[in-house]
Design goal:
Elements (H helix, E strand, L loop, with lengths): L10 H13 L10 H14 L3 E5 L2 H11 L7 E5 L5 H8 L3 E5 L10 H7 L4 E4 L11 H10 L3 E5 L7 E2 L2 E2 L6 E5 L12 E5 L2 H11 L20 H32 L5 E2 L14 E5 L4 H13 L16 H7 L5 H9 E4 L7 H14 L1
Parallel strand pairs: 2-3, 2-4, 4-5, 5-8
Antiparallel strand pairs: 1-9, 6-7, 8-9, 10-11, 11-12
Helix pairs in contact: 1-8, 2-8, 3-4, 3-7, 8-12
The protein binds pyridoxal-5'-phosphate.
Pyridoxal-5'-phosphate binds next to helix 3 and helix 4.
């Protein structure tokens, strides 16, 4: 099976882990040991911002960022339903109410016009998601947020290497949250990081990460144990150095696959421009005018032929039992339609040119 994603770990990561283990410094009681500090400095530089705060998952990054933006009980946060559930979880964990807005069917990202329709007196923040690694349309979102004094918390969990107007994804948000989960463009096994240019937000995030402590055993606020370990950070330092080569290989694979799949008009293919570069975390196509059963049949056939194709996300968050029962039904026609028609194909850096050709030809034959 060619898996949909696969971590690419080399001797450098293994040696970095062994060095940390030999050092005996595995973590730091206040949140940032030498490896975590170095990783944060390097990641902030990569993300084009002043501060990076490393945590132990992307979900923790989202939760901490939502709290640092001041979201409290009863506040509304506008976000897409076409995302991984963690985006909505973060809002609920903070006591907020997720308010789902529909997507732009061209990019699958939250639609700025739909966001505007959902703003109320209770709205506190907007959470765009860079779905599949393609940056949300952040400029109009920033303008809407500024006009209504709302925070922008970007879910950049899939966006390592993506750009918007030539700048790294996340720079136009008040805080951007990245995942370092094993499937992502770069990984620390499990891990996350928040990037921001705002010193106050960064300081709050550091407190939230470590029990609200600035000095040991003196909590200044309610906090959590969201610390990243030194081992994770050591892996992250090496992975970050390799990230641009990983993304380049993903891009090369995406281009080759698109050239092949352009032979059919049954698929809408993913695109990028010089101004808005994809991270190519997921290469997602859409089976035009298809019913869900037809998409699912293709997925099944691809898997039988050893291709780990997946549908992200076949159940939008607003239709998941917990969210539907707790927050009520809402109408998101573009989200529901896309959820039935999209599927993603493997293009990660370990997929060879021969495998790309096999994936493309197999799919063309099935269609
Ligand atoms: C869009 C999105 N948001 C949030 C997360 C949560 O990250 P993590 O799995 O590191 O908690 C992920 C990845 O899993 C994701 O893809």
């Amino acid at each position: 099976m060619i898996p949909i994603n696969l971590p690419k770990i080399g001797e450098e990561e293994i040696e970095a882990v062994v060095r940390v283990m030999r050092s005996g410094v595995l973590t730091h009681g206040l949140g940032a040991g030498p490896m975590v500090t170095q990783f944060e400095n390097n990641f902030a530089k990569f993300a084009g911002v002043k501060y990076a705060v490393a945590v132990n998952t992307g979900t923790a990054a989202l939760h901490a960022a939502v709290l640092a933006a001041g979201v409290q009980q009863g506040d509304e946060v506008i976000l897409p339903s076409f995302t991984f559930v963690a985006t909505a979880e973060a809002v609920v964990m903070a006591g907020g109410k997720p308010v789902f807005a529909d997507i732009d069917p061209e990019t699958y990202n939250i639609s700025p016009a739909e966001i505007e329709k959902k703003i109320t007196k209770k709205t506190k923040a907007i959470m765009p998601v860079d779905l599949y690694g393609f940056s949300a349309d952040i400029k109009p979102i920033r303008e809407i947020a500024d006009a209504h004094s709302l925070a922008v918390i970007e879910d950049a969990a899939q966006a390592h290497g993506a750009t918007y107007n030539g700048r790294p994804a996340g720079v136009f948000a008040d805080a951007a949250c990245w995942s370092l989960y094993a499937s992502k463009n770069m990984t620390t096994g499990e891990g996350g990081v928040i990037t921001t240019d705002n010193a106050e937000i960064a300081e709050t995030l550091r407190l939230l990460r470590n029990h609200g402590e600035k000095t040991k055993y003196t909590s200044l606020m309610l906090g959590y144990n969201y610390r990243m370990s030194e081992i994770q950070a050591a892996i992250g330092i090496v992975q970050l150095e390799k990230l641009s080569s990983f993304v380049a290989k993903r891009r090369e694979n995406a281009k080759r696959l698109s050239k092949l799949l352009a032979k059919t008009d049954r698929l809408k293919l993913p695109e990028e421009t010089d101004k808005r570069r994809h991270s190519w975390y997921l290469y997602t196509v859409r089976l035009k005018d298809a019913a869900e059963a037809e998409r699912n049949k293709i997925l099944e056939e691809l898997r039988k032929k050893g291709i780990g194709a997946e549908a992200y996300y076949s159940t939008p968050v607003h239709l998941m039992p917990y969210y539907r029962e707790r927050f009520g039904r809402c109408s998101l026609p573009e989200t529901e339609k896309a959820a039935k028609q999209v599927f993603s194909l493997p293009i990660h850096p370990s997929v060879t040119q021969e495998q790309i050709d096999y994936i493309g030809e197999t799919l063309l034959n099935l269609l």
